[in-house]
# Entry
Amino acid sequence: MKIAVLTKAIPSYESSIRVDSSGSWIDESIVNYVVNESDSYALEEALQIKESLGEGSEVVVVTLGSEANTSKVIKDGLAKGADRGIFIKNESSTTDPLTVAKIFADNLKSENFDLILSGLQSDDMGSGQTGVLIGELLEMSTATLAIETQVEGDKIKVKRELESGWFQWVTLPFPASISIQSGINEPRYPSLKGIMGAKRKELNTLESSSESQKQSFVNLYVPKNEKVTEKIEGDADTIVAKLMDILKNKLKVI
Amino acid sequence: MVLVVLENQRGKIHPFSLEAVAAGQKFANELNCDLTILCIGEKVDELKSQAQNFKASKLILAKNDLIDMYSADGYSKVLSDVISELSPKYVLVGHSYMVRDFLPRVSAKLSIPFVSDIISVDFNSGNPHFSKQVFNAKLATSIEISSDQALLSFQSAAFSSDDIEEGAPGSVEEFNVQLSDSDIKSNSEPEFQESSSGVDLTAAELILSVGRGIESEDNLPTMQSLADAMGAEVASSRPVVDMGWLPPYRQVGSSGQVVSPKLYFSCGVSGAIQHVVGMKGSKNILAINKDEDAPIFEIADYAVIGDVLEIVPKLTEEINNSK
# Structure
């Protein structure tokens, strides 16, 4: 089975995010890029499926973005056990999910993947559409928010998470594109051997086709605080004294 | 024309769909156009009985045995056919898990942009811009469309179902659904609920919520002690559950429970969108986080900038001493 895993480089949680001088993108120079969290669960799921099927399966880690931000993402995937990598170079900050999906689909079509796994959403744009869009563009079956997968011959059974504690099993024929919910497995760490071996693995660099965007950012801004927020600062003792006053006298909860 | 698509959540209109109806009426007013409401799939008549109380130009029913059970294949095909026939300018839905599952398929089929998880709309004299949160809610963006049509999904509370104008649709019509067995490639089984522990966070007056800022599972007893001292239920954000520190039924957010306690006391929770939608209705929000830029502070009444692991034990001791 040929499995693609879509991974994305996103700013780490700890990175400070500042709007750049253009007003419609962030200052990337002060940002540390890491693998999008749910994508690492998708990679682990792909590796486990490959391992359960034995010889003859392949996991390909795929990413799109600028060279500077994404190189770590591909290396990380190869070090964890992906067999090869595909890097789709795109130096412009494309934010339209459909445009992103068309670039992926154009570049991945000839690979004829049986299965494409992706994280449920990227923690930067948060659109949560890419995996499903690609599935439709490549005429694959689709499912989202998978929290368990079982390959059964020419089909894959997926346990989907619904809202407020409900679930549903869906069985899809291959080829299928499935988005993975975080928490589905325990992502592995790369071994030293994996890290060393990653350098010898195949990495194809492809140019992204130029697609026009049908939705675009007018501007980026720091959200306005909707509430009147009382800031509580100081050393721990000062803070605790203030909290006691609030809990006891204002909120009357203790 | 704007089209609102209703979702059936176990016999009732999904609460997010009600908010989409309020959005649809607002769009129709602002853009001076017709509003059509579509009832699709599972037990259309259940939806119809509630939807015929909403003021709208038209109510359309899309019925077919093959979509009695939800499937992305069936729903995306039917909605695409409806859009092709009616050519709505905007298609409005709530940002539910079902919408996330099938609406991108419609976007790709018809090459219509889909702006998801919108928090507000600026009608901008007829050329609306749509705001959404990005970069883990640290920033927001305003999005413009360069296309004749767009699909829009709204985050919960972007519009209020209290604003729905009651009335009746101008007409009720059935849509001629064209589906065959070969259109449905997947096989969906009935929805089910996994056994929970009986902890009903929605009924709790006081909630102490922990996020990845507590750093380690070893610090949970410290947090539990504060919860005990206050008489609060412990809840958490998704990462804490994913790491196995707390069971899933303790989770608050889009994939967990939606709560509105008297006090939501959050410790080391960053405030990602998926968490915030589950607790922003709390009457009071007190947040401790050492990151001054943490998005949780945007919605907090009390923002404590400090080290949760230093503050919590001292606070617990003070509370216990004061009893």
Remarks:
- The radius of gyration of chain B is 22 Å.
- Chain B has eight helices and 18 strands.
